[in-house]
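If your schedule permits, I should be very grateful for your opinion on a structural question. The matter concerns a single protein, recorded as an amino acid sequence and a row of backbone structure tokens. Could you please explain, in whatever detail you think fit, how the structure tokens follow from the sequence? I set the record out below, with my sincere thanks for your time.

——
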Amino acid sequence: MEATLTRTDFDFKGQKSVYHGKVRDVYNIDDRFMVMVATDRISAFDVVLPEGIPYKGQVLNQIAEYFLDATADIVPNWKIAVPDPMATVGIKCEPLKIEMIVRGYLTGSAWREYKAGAREICGVPLPEGMRENQKFASPILTPTTKADEGHDENISRDEIIARGIVDKDVYEQVEKYALALFERGTQMAAERGLILVDTKYEFGLHDGKVILIDEIHTPDSSRYFYADGYQERFEHGEEQRQLSKEFVRQWLIAHGFMGKPGQQVPYMSPDYCLEVSQRYIELYEHITGRKFVPADETDLAQRIFDNVSKCLAQL
């Protein structure tokens, strides 16, 4: 099987700290810059799965680059350069302690809650009689707290402001940005025969200014349906053809795993990991309209270190 990068331990010049997230390793350079390395790790139900997915880091990093560039006219973002297929160098920001989830359709965790009887999510009322994968009259915002460890939690707009998690003025700006980004992402997906179903955005502050950070519109942060056949499948109550990480979640659920205490992650065979890899590559090619070109994997860690170090020396 192809090589994978599941952990990094770099020591860049000026490095002050490193944070190992579920998928990305983030390096603080002189409290001025961030180096974000998209590894081949994959997570589901807030659990990092034991096997890496070939080319996943490259796919995520290059999709994020594509959309950061395509939305820079809507909101300033953190990206300065992409010196390596798996790494981005950008401005160090102070992250807001929330994630902005925008949903265009009732699916995934929102559908599971609705099916269980919930008629309100994050303070947003939901009408009776909705069905799985049904389109909302207009996109809804369902923020979550951003947990350093464990599970993120749903939270309402009013609670975010009341608890002082984010100042009212900043939150209102972030709301506008999130909806505008979702509209742009929806348009771009439609041009490629896809439906942007839902997604998450993260924001930070830099010199008091709201900045878009992290990845956007990747299969780790978003869910896509194929537009062709959507309506027919919806009317017949059939599963949608989709390009997202949801198929991994469904596979885990079918094998008795939902991230709950005592549950064991099912065995991920090399064939299954390659299948997941192909789904990620498929989404890259669909959403960007570009042919995926696998990067040289002879020594992933050394390649990234050399490319990023050269970039940092020029900043």
